[in-house]
Design brief:
Blueprint: H1 2-13, H2 20-53, E1 54-58, E2 72-77, E3 102-106, E4 114-121, E5 126-130, E6 133-136, E7 139-140, H3 155-158, H4 174-179, E8 184-185, E9 188-190, E10 195-199, H5 209-212, E11 215-216, E12 220-230, H6 243-255, H7 257-260, E13 268-269
Antiparallel strand pairs: 1-2, 2-12, 3-4, 3-12, 4-10, 5-6, 5-9, 6-7, 8-9, 10-11, 12-13
Length: 271
């Protein structure tokens, strides 16, 4: 075997040197193409993953405290809730939205920012709130996750829905104030088809379905799975969404990473 190898090398050495250049160019071109292909595949996989499977979000407000804190960074499962009824969806790990699910969804107004709230009412459910107690289809809802602030009375938030169009409180989205009574029947708010009624766990500090209406099923992004990182922050830290504010926030986080990280919340499952 060694003799054959030596012969090959000797014979190759007798060949003119000029033809070697094309070979070198082909090898170099092949390496570049491989690099580009690998990069494109990586980008496509990342785009597919963030589009269809999982996506990262952060919590900028107190509305879901104590379940989710300002500064919690979440991984959201976008591949959990049912699609559009296609035959192949029966073979996929989809399920329907349930009472108590935490949803990430697109807010129905303005620039459609992402919100996170808990599902209280499913399509067809009848919702009523009496003295801060939530009733779904006539039965009181057990909510161990809810907190109320003493003395933070909100007549509209504590008793819902309004009795008539004259008692619709100031503070509702104008669009919701104009149509809310269309969904009130015998003192209950009836959730329409393919829509959900959602509320925050921090019940007295949550801008939710009571004030702006239902969540369209098509606006649901997914369900938070885990807190992959948590940093001590306030809502003011996320108020400036411009470039300068974002860069300042990143710099502050990096400089104080060890002391501001909530290590005990890392990799905590979201319920």
């Amino acid at each position: 075997m060694e003799t054959e190898t030596s012969t090959f090398v000797a014979e190759e050495a007798k060949l003119p040197a000029q033809p070697q250049a094309p070979t070198a160019r082909v090898q170099s071109s092949g390496t570049f193409v491989d690099y580009v292909e690998s990069l494109l595949v990586t980008v496509l996989i990342a785009l597919f993953g963030t589009t269809f499977i999982v996506q990262a979000f952060k919590i900028p407000s107190q509305s879901m405290e104590p379940t989710l804190l300002v500064g919690d960074h979440l991984l959201v499962n976008k591949f959990i809730f049912g699609g559009r009824g296609a035959w192949y969806e029966k073979m996929l790990p989809y399920r329907a939205v349930r009472h108590g699910d935490i949803l990430v969804f697109k807010y129905p107004f303005d620039d459609h920012p992402h919100y996170v709230k808990r599902v209280i009412g499913l399509p067809g459910d009848r919702i009523r709130i009496v003295d801060q107690r939530v009733f779904v289809n006539g039965s009181r809802l057990v909510e161990p996750y809810v907190v109320h602030e003493a003395g933070a009375g909100d007549p509209f938030g504590d008793n819902f829905p309004p009795l008539d169009s004259y008692s619709v409180a100031i503070g509702l989205r104008p669009e919701w104030a104009a149509q809310i009574m269309d969904y009130v029947h015998r003192g209950d708010l009836v959730v329409p088809e393919n829509h959900y009624f959602v509320m925050g766990d921090n019940r007295d500090h949550s801008w939710d379905s009571r004030y702006w209406g239902f969540v369209d099923g098509d606006a649901v992004m997914g369900r938070p799975m885990v807190i992959y990182w948590s940093v001590q922050a306030t809502s003011d830290d996320y108020a400036n969404r411009g470039l300068s504010g974002t860069l300042h926030g990143i710099l502050e986080t990096v400089l104080h990473l060890p002391t501001r990280t909530r290590w005990h919340r890392m990799l905590r499952e979201v319920h």
